[in-house]
Amino acid sequence: MGFPKNFLWGGAVAANQCEGAYLEDGKGLSVPDMLLGGDVNTPRTFLPKTDEIAFYPSHEAIDFYHRYKEDIALFAEMGFTVFRLSINWGRIYPNGDDEEPNEEGLAFYDAVFDECEKHGIEPLVTLCHYEIPWNIVTKYGGFSNREVIDLFVKYARTCFERYKDKVKYWLTFNEINIPCMHAGGIGPLYGLGIMEEEDIQSDHHIPLTELKYNLQRTFEGLHNEFVASALAVKLGHEINPDFMIGNMIAHETTYPLTPNPKDVLACMNVDDLHNNFCGDVQVRGEYPSFMWRYFKENGIDTSFITEEDKKILKEGTVDMYTFSYYMTNCVTVDEKAEKIGGNMSMGAKNPYLKASDWGWQIDPDGLRYTLNVLHGRYPHTPLMVVENGFGAFDVVEEDGSIHDEYRINYFRPHIEAMREAIEDGVPLIGYTTWGPIDLVSAGTGQYAKRYGFIYVDRHDDGTGDFSRSKKDSFDWYKKVIASNGEDLD
Questions:
Q1: Strands 328-331 vs 253-256: parallel, antiparallel or unpaired
Q2: How buried is residue 76: exposed, middle or buried, by Cβ count under 10 Å (0-12/13-18/19+)?
Q3: Mind listing the pLDDT tens digit for each residue in 429-460?
Q4: How far, in Å, CA of 483 to CA of 489, rounded?
Q5: Percent helix, strand and coil across the chain, each rounded to 5?
Q6: For labelling, which of 178, 404, 455, 461 has a CA lying 20 to 30 Å from the CA of 263?
Q7: Sign of CA dihedral 320, 326, 328, 334
Q8: pLDDT band at 185, cuts 50/70/90?
Q9: Contact yes or no for 294/276 (Cβ under 8 A)
Q10: Confidence bin at 86 (pLDDT 50/70/90)
Q11: How far does CA 485 lie from the centroid of its chain?
């Protein structure tokens, strides 16, 4: 069977990790603009006060804002049929609550989408990819405030109406489930724009892992995002019935570390909270039963879930389920088990898997497993893998070449796994690698953690001329796309 003829091949980026131009043409501050860089051993830090010495990677990122034509031409050369990108909310509504949208911001994305059309590339657009305006955080308390629902829906309406003839594929919130994955405040800040006042007022660097965290506010905020997403889905279908609007889940595929039934049950609980909870709400339109027990056992007052909200969730289910897949984790009740980390999670080390330089366990078989599990849970919903990639240290040779066989060796078995899943009967419609061009890492704020088929001359000390060059993997992925996933050599 193999990949269907209309399969969407491409790559994915986020505005805050690639655009730069962070206050240009009327753009307002957003959450990532307050985050400094880190490294493989040091977590990213947050600094809300202006610091002329500090280096904020998102402020210039890889300068896609000024180089989008060059980059999209390179994507077209690889044969992309889809390009996943995000609109930065702060480019459209600089404060998040402005009366009128910023025309210069709207015009920029018009130009980007026109360039995609010129090259026969379908845009897949995320409305909110960790890019909540900073004013929404400080003035409203992020999505823990129900007023922000209306602000997001207004923003979504502006985008849907402006680009209704240029964009067919939409995602509401990137990795909406990440607030469920943390004992700390990274997820609520990234995903919901929620920070505790003490941290907002801080005048010193705070590691993201040490941000304060309020469980009640987090789940209230997440619920408000569910409602905002459902309202946006309904609105989008009214504006253009041909829109395909999806959710986006950071899928943390988990295995029990041992056959110990307590490990199996612990694994089930992690999988339900981290993955199934948000998927069920957005695909099935209702809270799964296991969450009511979780709320009760964690002392969470659920009065914020109104009957009207339940109706909205039921009416605003998504058209497709999209997700990121980078690694798998093991779960155990054994506190002495060896741990291994990733950007957004930490589980027990799987002795059968190798890991990247950042501790991400590489498991292509897990992708086939994940696709089958998701199809079993949501049998009538098309699936799309919208993030999958390998962060590594790349070496530029004296002649300018970059031999990244390790990246090819990562992608090859993952693409084979998708092909096997399609043979299994999974309705997989597309695949976008993360990221097709080097960009700023969301987890560490590094440039050195490189994902792309395209190298960008930009470095963690702020040096580099932003020039682009092709890695060996560029021609390899071009061949993969041209053969519709058949030629992986």
A1: parallel
A2: middle
A3: 999 999 999 999 988 899 999 999 999 999 99
A4: 11
A5: 40, 15, 45
A6: 178
A7: negative
A8: confident
A9: no
A10: very high
A11: 24
Q: Which amino acid makes up residue 228?
A: A
Three-class SS state of 339: strand
Record the tokens describing residue 236, joined without a space.
Answer: 């989008």
Mean pLDDT, the chain, integer = 94
Q: Which residues are designated catalytic?
A: 175, 387
HSE of 178 in the Cβ direction (CA atoms, 13 Å)? 27
How far apart CA 96 and CA 88 sit, in angstroms, is 11
Question: Which residues, at least 6 apart from 71, have a Cβ–Cβ distance to it below 8 Å?
Answer: 64, 437, 454, 468
Closest CA to 61 of 86, 41, 81, 82: 86
CA pair distance 361, 141, nearest whole angstrom: 35
Q: Residue 147 has which token pair? A: 């007023």
CA 385 to chain centre: 11
- What interhelical angle do 405-423 and 364-377 show, nearest 10? 30
Model confidence pLDDT, tens digit, residues 216-251? 999 999 999 999 999 999 999 999 999 999 999 999
Phi, psi angles (nearest 5°) of residue 432: -125, 120
Q: Given phi > 0 = left and psi -120 to 50 = alpha, else beta, which region is 175? A: left
Is the pLDDT confidence value at 342 over 70?
A: no
- Residue 260 pLDDT greater than 90, yes or no: yes
Q: The pTM is what?
A: 0.96
Q: Where do runs of H (alpha helix) occur along 19-95?
A: 64-78, 89-92
CATH of domain 8-482: 3.20.20.80
Query: What is the pairing mode between strands 346-348 and 339-341?
Result: antiparallel
Give the tens place of pLDDT for each residue, 264-275: 999 999 999 999
Measured between alpha carbons, how far is 34 from 27 in angstroms, rounded to an integer?
Answer: 14
